[in-house]
Design brief:
By secondary structure, the protein is mainly beta. The chain contains no helices and 20 strands. A hairpin with a 7-residue loop joins strand 8 and strand 9.
Length: 239
């Protein structure tokens, strides 16, 4: 399942720095959330995620995600939440623009200098639990902590063009970075030895960055895991 996990979407002003997350594995049976194991779309937001970020108003820098069967960093921003003010009151999903917390239009505080390596998807800004409630017997919570289908999520921070600096993506089996949203500036990035360096929806700016298709550090055997028939098909990532 997920590693570093901001649960509901009202978690803000946290500092998540200098952390290492390794070997994230899909929960094939007994998962509390569909995002713990979702198989596709693999080139957009496969689960689980080593770093699951539910609100952009956090300081997330200098972290490394290695070896996940899903995503390294998954920015899963919901459109709207209604959250209580007291401790333990939690949040519920708000419909039709209602609510008091709006992750999908919230400005990014800091997101830079992170590394995703040997994962399926490196960094993704798309996919959030905003679909129908899944009636998961293991997680009957109908609030924001419950199990909801994943839908596309277009990140549009109010009054900000976010800058994501010095991100590094190595040996990602499907895509190094996927973005869905208003314009973002990606600067000083390194994309190397990934099946696809970047998949950029809408008008994104990538500058002062480098794409390396096959480096001297690449070996064709690195992705053999994803084609090994002895491994459960839901754990593999076909090309």
């Amino acid at each position: 399942g997920h590693g570093f996990f901001l649960e509901d979407g009202n978690e803000v002003k946290n500092t998540i720095q200098y952390n290492l997350g390794i070997f994230g594995r899909k929960i094939l049976q007994g998962a509390l959330l569909v995002s713990d194991h979702n198989f596709g779309p693999q080139d957009r937001f496969p689960g689980p995620s080593t770093f699951w970020v539910s609100n952009p108003d956090n300081d997330i820098r200098y972290n490394v995600a290695v070896g996940s069967e899903g995503s390294g960093f998954w920015m899963a921003f919901r459109r709207g939440l209604q959250c209580g003010n007291g401790a333990g009151t939690g949040c519920v999903v708000a419909a039709n623009g209602n609510g008091n917390v709006f992750p999908l239009t919230t400005r990014t505080l800091f997101f830079s200098d992170n590394v995703a390596m040997s994962v399926v998807m490196g960094f993704t800004w798309d996919g959030a639990p905003m679909g129908v409630f899944r009636n998961n017997n293991l997680n009957p919570d109908t609030g924001a902590s419950g199990d909801f289908e994943l839908t596309s999520a277009h990140y549009s921070p109010s009054g900000q063009v976010p800058v994501f600096a010095n991100l590094q993506m190595y040996k990602c089996a499907r895509v190094g970075m996927y973005t869905r949203g208003n314009q973002m500036h990606v600067t000083g990035a390194v994309f190397a030895d990934t099946a696809k360096g970047g998949f950029f929806a809408y008008n994104q700016v990538i500058k002062d960055s480098i794409f390396v298709a096959y480096s001297a550090n690449h070996d064709n055997g690195e992705f053999a895991y994803h084609f090994d028939g002895s491994i459960h098909s839901q754990r593999r990532t076909p090309g």
